[in-house]
Write a structure and sequence with these properties.
six-stranded parallel beta sheet, about 400 residues, binds MU-OXO-diiron, alpha/beta
């Protein structure tokens, strides 16, 4: 695909990765992704904003075929899906200066072996003139690495945000046309990589909202022609209170835990609580992550195997601990054959979660009336706790 004009002197470049289905060998990409770069032609200087994942470098290089000079190459973020093709760009334009935050400089040298003499580091708030266009660099650390920054193009009021506000979607739409579709993809993206840094995201969000923006151009997914759409969504995900909702990741081996899950979901629904259940043997962990953004309570369903939680339940707990959702309560339900330390092991795996542990329900073998009664009690406790915390 050729470069596509956004505004006078501003072009989308980059690559659409229709077939990619996994990021970091971990994160499902049901809709593929894109690696957006942008070309800005000022009256005196020309800039390329970010690059692409190395396997797609040829697509960017072919878009640059008729561009005789690049004066600056901005690297907002050292992760290779944006920085990986920088060495190819610098080979083609050896006099280009690589603009980065001071922290990114060291990382780009370590990760890509870029020569120190190529760099021009910029401080927070520093500006560079391209003649009739002015770039302002805004440091936004921990979105989602420590070196991240964004660029505001003052005259055109465009924010180039790199990963911030991004969404993993492969589409030929240059701009967001279906906000519902992009909302879900952006929330998935937020949940998977931004949510662990919620506190610093909040600070960076406030820092950016003082800018008058006509457009946000991220490095994944379509451009936002209505920036308030994604800024309001981020505000809700970051600052909104947890909801009257239980997320229930579970795994079952011989249907005992499954029976408990079925019963428990009914007990919660009867008490006005919405539930999202995820069978960890088959689930898309991105869907689980999306629902962790809002959940008031997490309940893990697991059988005891090898004297502890099922490995898939341990995996689910590990992921939940890593993404640090704002849930306030957590419990465990499941069955066991003869004993074990399922609850103790799971509880030890979630030090990052600021949750109150609610009395678990573990059945010996198939659940009995006594266990169903205990599940009713747990559902009642969750309903009361949610009410006390004004979860809606
Ligand atoms: Fe899209 Fe953190 O890289």
């Amino acid at each position: 695909m050729k470069a596509r004009k956004i505004k006078e002197g501003i072009y989308w470049m980059g690559a659409i990765d229709w077939d990619r289905r996994l990021f970091d060998s971990l994160i499902p990409l049901p809709d593929g992704t894109s690696y957006n770069a942008y070309l800005i032609e000022g009256s005196e200087k020309t800039v390329l904003v970010d690059s692409v994942d190395p396997p797609m470098a040829d697509k960017l290089l072919s878009q640059l075929q008729l561009v005789s000079q690049i004066d600056y190459l901005i690297s907002h973020h050292a992760e290779q899906d944006h920085s990986g093709a920088i060495p190819y760009i610098l080979s083609k334009y050896p006099d280009a200066k690589l603009i980065s935050s001071p922290k990114a400089k060291g990382m780009l040298i370590d990760l890509l072996g870029i020569s120190e003499k190529s760099f021009l580091t910029v401080e927070d708030g520093e500006v560079i003139s391209l003649g009739n266009k002015t770039l302002k660099f805004i440091h936004t650390p921990w979105v989602h690495w420590p070196e991240t920054m964004v660029t505001y193009l003052e005259e055109d009021k465009v924010l180039f945000s790199c990963d911030f506000f991004g969404s993993h979607i492969a589409t030929t739409d240059l701009y967001v046309t279906d906000e519902g579709r992009v909302y879900e993809a952006a929330k998935r993206y937020y949940a998977e990589i931004m949510m662990p840094f919620r506190n610093t995201i909040e600070k960076n969000l406030e820092k950016l909202t003082s800018y008058d923006m006509e457009m946000i151009a991220p490095s994944h997914g379509p451009i936002y022609p209505r920036p308030s759409f994604i800024i309001d969504a981020y505000r809700d995900w970051v600052l909104g209170p947890p909801r009257n909702m239980v997320v229930l990741p579970f795994v079952s081996m011989h249907k005992s835990t499954m029976k408990m899950v079925d019963y428990f979901v009914g007990a919660l629904v009867e008490r006005g609580i919405s539930v999202e259940q995820f069978n960890l043997a088959v689930t898309d962990i991105g869907k689980l992550a999306i629902n962790l953004v809002d959940a008031g309570t997490i309940v893990v369903g697991t059988p005891t195997v090898l004297a502890g939680p099922h490995p898939l339940a341990a995996y689910g707990a590990f992921l939940a601990n890593a993404v640090r959702p704002k849930a306030k309560f957590l419990s465990v339900i499941g069955s066991y054959g003869w004993g074990g330390k399922t609850v103790e092991i799971l509880a030890g795996m979630i030090p990052n979660l600021k949750v109150e542990l609610l009395e678990p329900v573990l059945a010996k073998g198939m659940p009995s009336e006594k266990d169903f009664k205990a599940l009713d009690n747990l559902a009642e406790t969750i309903a009361r706790k949610h009410k006390e915390n004004n979860m809606k």
